[in-house]
Design a protein that fits this description.
This protein is mainly alpha-helical. The chain folds into 2 domains: about 60 residues; about 90 residues, Tetratricopeptide repeat domain (Serine Threonine Protein Phosphatase 5, Tetratricopeptide repeat, Alpha Horseshoe). About 80% of the residues lie in helices and about 0% in strands. The chain is built from 6 helices and no strands. It is elongated. The termini are far apart.
């Protein structure tokens, strides 16, 4: 009976030890995955970085820095709606992520600019609305390019 109890204890501790090793290995793999994603991102290989960040998020969905990077990737590649979603997810996880707030605002301005460009195709060129849209468009462009107002 004592031998059976001893065997059960040994099996139990062996199982705990191997579970710990698997968890440590997964953490190392996630660190390696994040490092690879960051290297690809910094090198400008956005397609590769996107795939690696998405893979990282499959294992660690609540990791705000990866959502932030995905937001940058989507926005840089013209997928503004996806960029907004990624920045918002980042901010759900970390409301103090100031760069995500800033990039979200910039992306929303780009979306507004795109809307105004599309509206130009459908608005009477002599209308008051057209003039207002033109003024708003110019102001958004000024903000996005960092130019100051004339005379200031």
């Amino acid at each position: 009976m004592n031998k059976i109890c001893l065997l059960i204890v040994i099996i139990f501790f062996t199982g705990c030890s191997s579970s710990k090793n698997i968890a440590e290995k997964n953490n190392v793999n996630l660190v390696e995955l994040e490092n690879s994603a960051e290297s690809a991102y910094m090198a400008g290989h956005l397609d590769m970085a996107e795939g690696l960040y998405r893979k990282l998020l499959k294992n660690k969905d609540n990791y705000a820095p990866a959502w932030f990077r995905l937001g940058n990737i989507y926005t840089r590649s013209g997928r503004l709606d996806a960029g907004v979603s990624a920045y918002q997810r980042c901010l759900q996880l970390d409301q103090q992520h100031t760069k995500a707030w800033y990039n979200l605002a910039i992306t929303r301005m780009r979306q507004s600019t795109d809307i105004l460009i599309e509206a130009q195709k459908h608005v009477d060129p002599n209308s008051k609305a057209k003039k207002q849209m033109d003024d708003l468009f110019l102001e958004l462009m000024r903000l996005q390019t960092g130019q100051s107002k004339a005379g200031t």
